[in-house]
């Protein structure tokens, strides 16, 4: 798998929108409800890049197999931290290490940028918990009814951190 940083969204926007819609349709809690319209998905990707967001995609045979974002803090006293966000894998590429490789790549990018603390959240009962724990993320809290899944059911959220000095 080739991992690339996306700095101009246009060439990947349609494929990323389709991936996002598929992940939401599968029930992922990604801050959006099913059905996710084309307009909503495109709008999201049109607005994602900024000076505080780095976007990485994993490509297999030239097709997007997954994506992850690093959200850097814009707070004066939080310049040492980043959030792992929107880690998604297309259904055809699941269970092939795509998410793990993207997560590791994002961690290395954050480290190179001088970040020493990573944060993330995920649904309490979701499969991503195993990945995060196996990669050294430590659970520091759970919030009941933190977010709705794609179908409107309230789910608890798990919150993790990892130091990367």
Measured as a percent range, the helix fraction is 25-40%
Number of domains: 1
Give the strand content: 35-45%
How would you name the oligomeric state of the polypeptide chains in this document?
A: single chain
Which runs of at least 5 residues are low in confidence (pLDDT < 50)?
none
CATH superfamily heading: Gcn5-related N-acetyltransferase (GNAT)
Q: Roughly how many Å is the radius of gyration? A: 15 Å
Named at the architecture level, the CATH assignment is 3-Layer(aba) Sandwich
Order of helices and strands: EHHEEEHEHEE
CATH structural fold name: Aminopeptidase
Look at the structure and give the mean pLDDT: 97
Number of separate helices: 4
CATH class: Alpha Beta
Please summarize the sheet with the most strands: 7 strands, mixed
Number of separate strands: 7
First-last Cα distance: 26 Å
Structural class: alpha+beta
- The shape is globular
Domain N-acetyltransferase: 1-165
Keywords: Acyltransferase, Transferase
Protein name: N-acetyltransferase domain-containing protein
Pfam family, one: Acetyltransf_1
What does this structure look like?
It is a single chain. This protein is of the alpha+beta class. It has one domain: 3-Layer(aba) Sandwich (Aminopeptidase). 28% of the residues lie in helices and 36% in strands. It has helices spanning 13-25, 38-48, 98-112, 128-134, and strands at residues 2-6, 53-60, 63-72, 81-89, 117-123, 138-148, 154-163. Strands 1-2-3-4-5-7-6 form a seven-stranded mixed β-sheet, sandwiched between helices.
